[in-house]
């Protein structure tokens, strides 16, 4: 009989111990944060004009005869005499806006930012540049547009 009393007493003590002992939250694990030092990305300061499609076209008086003369002496080495159709190397020119033609003529390249809606006819980089013709582009462009069929 005594042993039963002892067992019950021990059981009660054990249970009261369990219920009164505050449950300690496990200590938060130490999170090792590795600080990786990276080089700050270099800020590329592009010239503002490089980001815009707008090219200031040097204003030259529009002279159709001059435009024609330059077109026939210089451009048709690669483009067609009729700018509505492809030439031996260069594509048709009637869809090129003035600023684009200006950029193409003075740099030989398409601008990074193209005029809205304009799709380059070729992805090649074969055109030579004619920086000295910058001021004549309005005349060349006007001449090309005067021949546009559609
Ligand atoms: C050496 C050959 C060559 C000469 C000379 C040349 N072009 Fe080009 N042109 C090209 C080629 C090739 C392209 C297609 C893109 C490229 O490869 O550069 C082109 C593209 C162009 C374009 C863009 C057409 C489009 O709709 O995509 C224009 C505008 C243009 N040329 C204007 C001219 C004018 C104006 C002249 C004369 C002052 C001229 N080119 C002289 C070869 C030439």
List the helices and strands and how they pair.
Layout: H1 2-20, H2 48-51, H3 64-73, H4 98-107, H5 137-146
The chain binds heme C.
Heme C (HEC) is lined by residues 74-75, 77-79, 89-91, 93, 95-96, 100-101, 104-105, 120-122, 124-128, 130, 133, 140.
Structural notes for this entry:
With 150 residues, the chain is mostly helical. The chain has a domain at 63-146. It has helices at residues 2-20, 48-51, 64-73, 98-107, 137-146. Helix 3 (64-73) crosses helix 5 (137-146). The chain is rod-shaped. The termini are far apart. The structure holds heme C (HEC). Heme C binds at residues 74-75, 77-79, 89-91, 93, 95-96, 100-101, 104-105, 120-122, 124-128, 130, 133, 140.
Bound molecules: heme C
**Biggest β-sheet description:** none
Counted by DSSP, the helix tally is 5
Low-confidence stretches: none
Q: Please tell me the overall pLDDT.
A: 81
Q: List how many beta strands DSSP finds.
A: 0
What is the end-to-end distance? 117 Å
SSE string, helices as H and strands as E? HHHHH
Q: Report strand %.
A: under 5%
The chain-level structural class is mainly alpha
Q: Tell me, what's the shape?
A: rod-shaped
- Please give the share of residues in helix: 25-40%
Q: Rg to the nearest angstrom?
A: 40 Å
Notable characteristics:
binds heme C; 150 residues; single chain; mainly alpha
Task: Briefly summarize what is shown.
The protein is mainly alpha-helical and 150 residues long. It contains 5 helices and no strands.
